Amino acid sequence: MKLAPTLAQRVFQLREFRNLTVRDLARLCRFPPQRIEEIEAGMETWFSSTDRQLLAKALCVEPAVIQEVETRPRLEDPLALQEVSDRLTSLILGGARDLQCPACGHSLRCSIQEGFDIEGQPIGFAKAFCTRCPFVLR
Prior knowledge:
This protein is of the alpha+beta class and 138 residues long. The chain has helices at residues 7-17, 22-29, 33-40, 49-59, 63-67, 78-93, and strands at residues 108-116, 122-130, 136-137. It has two domains: 7-67, lambda repressor-like DNA-binding domains (434 Repressor (Amino-terminal Domain), Orthogonal Bundle); 78-137, no CATH class.
């Protein structure tokens, strides 16, 4: 069988080959059915290692079969990335928590790591990561 060239098409193709409905695959993966629909619509293009393994096991394939067609969202311009990083840092340190990922638009998990500088003064560091793509603010 010739495998489809995109993640969305490949997941659909493998699901159909295994004669599974969206609901069946969601149950096997322990994903919500809406997430399977989003994957097959091309809205999700990258998985965490755990999610990839769950999906591969449900589709009875090796994780590499799925990983080879994944694409990671990237911010191309380093200057734009620095501006986004600075803006997110100031928003998080200012108390904002409901922020969206600049790479994919999904929600960010935000926190402030507290520590001390070299002189013993308290200092806060903004931390954030996307719940869908590999974007991380460190």
